[in-house]
Amino acid sequence: MKNRFFVIDVETTGNKIGTDKIIQIGAILIENGEIIEQFASFVNPNMKLSSFIKQFTGIEDEMLSKAPTFDLIAPMLSEMLEDSYFVAHNVPFDIAFLKAEFRKCGAKWRNCPTLDTVELSRLLFPTLNSYKLNQLATELSIEHDQPHRADSDAEATAQLLVNLLIKLKSLPLVTLKKMQSYAASFQSSLKNLLKDIINEKKQLLLTDTEDYDIHRNIALKVQRRQSQIENERLNFDDFETKSIIPLLKKVDPKFEIRDGQIEMIETIEEAFKTRVHGLLEAGTGTGKTIGYLLPSILHAKKTGKRIVISTYTTHLQEQIMGQEIKILKKALPFSFEATILKGRHHYLCLRKFEECMETDSDDTYDTIFTKSQILVWLTETSNGDVDEINLSSGGRLFWNKVKSDSSCCSSKECPWFSRCYYRQKRNAAEVSDLIITNHALLLSDMKSDFSLIPAYSELVIDEAHHLDDVASDHLGIKLDYTSIQILLNQIGLSDGIELLHKIKLATKSMNIGLSSEIDKVEEQYIETKNMIDELFRTIRTYTLAQKQQSKNEIGRITYRFDSSSEEGPLWKSVKSYAFLAIEMLEDIKFNILSIGEKLEAPFGLITDIKSLGKALGDISNGLSKLLFEHESNNVTWVEIEPKGAQNSAFLYCQPIDISELLADRLFAKKESVILTSATLAINDSFQYIKSSLGLLDFEVITKKIASPFSYKDQVQLMLPIDVPEIKDVEQTEFTCEIASKIIEIARVTRGRMLVLFTSYDMLEKTFYNVKAAAGLDGFVLIGQGISSGSRDRLTKSFKQHEQAILFGTSSFWEGIDIPGEDLSCIVIVRLPFSSPDNAIMARKSELMKQEGKNAFMDLFLPQAILRFKQGFGRLIRAKNDRGVVFVLDRRLSTKSYGKKFIHALPPIEIYEEKTDVLLKKLSDWL
């Protein structure tokens, strides 16, 4: 077949094949890399268009009335198709409609190989965030003026195809050969195309040895060591931050020198110098990140000691490195080294990946495709970090098989030892001035007696208001049916592809008689899986039978239990099954490790046996602590999905109070820890955060740095007085009323609205009430847990639509950044108090009452105020932002504690009227 490609896009009256019809076609013929023919035409469907299709495509009925019908176009399309690849961005959609239309008019359809540019883009550009055509066009600088018009889409798809073919031809021969062996499983017809490219490379005698590091038949990006600029002649005592800050302006013209930033820098310098801890609340817009990075870099250079920067998420780690560190590296008159360090599971284990590449007897499409994606990615990545690659949900499951973990010892026996991504990152961190990590790894390091992060004595914790929750989560235990079964599945059957099969093959090659031991483990494997299933089914049944159960904010049924005081026949069954499960896990662990000791197997197999043995022990210990060992400082609870499987249950154990742990194991062992966030203080007091994090017995510098924004001019707070109090009405009536208010407000703000809830149940009911109501035609409704996608994906979707309303719960109260006109209104439905039924909060409350304290005033209220500040802070992200915050919770006005919420905000205009009066004010102001 010639390199001839028929690229097409169609617009239709809808998505129903056979009922809906094609209304526009754009087609391009490419041969040997050049466009040789183009065709574009409207198509008369002999039916009226819906308002949605008109808005979506920009096509009107009048444009179609004199257009040719499909039967007049079909012969030409058939001719263009001859001896070509059929190419489209989402082939199944376009080809299904074309075949249906060809069938209806009796024209000849030519069967031909297909290339789907969605699939090929995912394969060849594995690190992109989105594979929508318009976003690919932006990423690859392809002109695409009219998205969702067939002619423009076809042209963009053709240019995309050219880019994809160039990328495919650039791949090393070993990568192409391996992809060719997988090609039959792809949806696109790549086999012949790959064969042609491979033959061409062979004929030209092209080698990849200089461009790639080819090891054990896998091509990697060559890791080039960065040349370090010598700073030996510099006296860092001569450098002062005040003289350095103006240099940032030269690198970044948008950079503004702010008084608050100077104040923050000086405070951190003082804390480092006097070896004390610091609590710094830095309002939005103070330039907080530069404010702590600059003094940290200078201190590291002056003392020769590395400083660790910890932030909440891996995304924020990347953001700091890609933005502020990049600016500082350009601006500073000396060099410094900064390294991102994440948890081990973020990095690819090349040994595991190589072994998985050799196993394909049970591979699904997702597995084969993910292997191919990773092969391409390995030619590009320097880090081997999963956050770089865009994997499907099936791809994430495969990643669990090939990720590095603590049991994958970086022994020199490993054939990939010198190329190990985690080891390279760890080595880079050893010689860095700054290590940028995340709270989870920071706490894992603390838990493991500081063995994961290179030694340090100074630490900056950004987003420090999360430290309490992350510590509770990370220092606790979580077990569920699915994760245990996934672990057990790694054992597998002796005639399968997993560990037991590999052991069986190893014993055969070494003539070791272990068949009875293998048979015993196989029998135990089946019995243990069944026992775990029975255990979690019984746990779920027991939970549903409890009267004290409640629902958490994401809709799960929760029940707090105490293993020492639970009773009844069902609980006896739980304990009986748990005892047997623990015994079985210990037995299978012992037998697998015993087999491993008798094997003289390859390094990888022995490592996997030890790794699995440790993991089985962790599960066994976890079940024992959760269901048999009651500790007064821990709280245990179970969560179940109301509509989940019969064995769907999640067991948790967390420390009630982490303040002593942090005090003894972190703050007492470090010279200076700086904790910063936009929300640490409550009405100018840091007492709550000091108490919750264990800082009461330490010398701590505290500083509240005001935001430079003029909130009085930029924000209005509106409190409708005609909203019912939830205690006075049924929740159904309340959600209907809230939906009505949201619709009224949205009409004035033209969407651009974030609606914040404290429970998923209320969010869901309100969302569907708004959706069912009339009056919001043209508005896009995006609901967390309803619309598919992660928080980041939903936020991105919200930004892309002019008239959008985003409904969010817990995670949307903070951490999303939507500056400018994309967001002009926040609606806070309920004040963000934690549920009194929350397992940890309930136990904390009980203990506080025993001590004679007021749990509401000392725990629930301060926590809610900090969350309220976070939610409010989503609105104004830049000095030119303007917007309004509606609070639909009457308690802000009717309860005495409402003033504490108001006082926690910066000075702003507050209006308390009926909704129609407020909307008139808002309309005039906007």
TrEMBL record:
CDD domains for the chain: DEDDh (cd06127)
Entry GO MF terms: 3'-5' exonuclease activity; 4 iron, 4 sulfur cluster binding; ATP binding; DNA binding; DNA helicase activity; DNA-directed DNA polymerase activity; hydrolase activity, acting on acid anhydrides, in phosphorus-containing anhydrides
Pfam families according to UniProt: Helicase_C_2, ResIII, RNase_T
Keywords annotated in UniProt: 4Fe-4S, ATP-binding, DNA damage, DNA repair, Exonuclease, Helicase, Hydrolase, Iron, Iron-sulfur, Metal-binding, Nuclease, Nucleotide-binding
Enzyme Commission number: 3.1.-.-
InterPro entries noted in UniProt: ATP-dep_Helicase_C, DinG, DinG/Rad3-like, DnaQ, Helic_SF1/SF2_ATP-bd_DinG/Rad3, Helicase-like_DEXD_c2, Helicase/UvrB_N, Helicase_ATP-bd
Major enzyme class: hydrolase
Taxonomy, superkingdom: Bacteria
An individual GO BP term: DNA replication
Motif annotated as DEAH box, chain positions: 462-465
PROSITE patterns xrefs: HELICASE_ATP_BIND_1, HELICASE_ATP_BIND_2
Function, as annotated: 3'-5' exonuclease.
Family under the similarity heading: Belongs to the helicase family. DinG subfamily. Type 2 sub-subfamily.
Name assigned to this protein: 3'-5' exonuclease DinG
Organism: Schinkia azotoformans LMG 9581
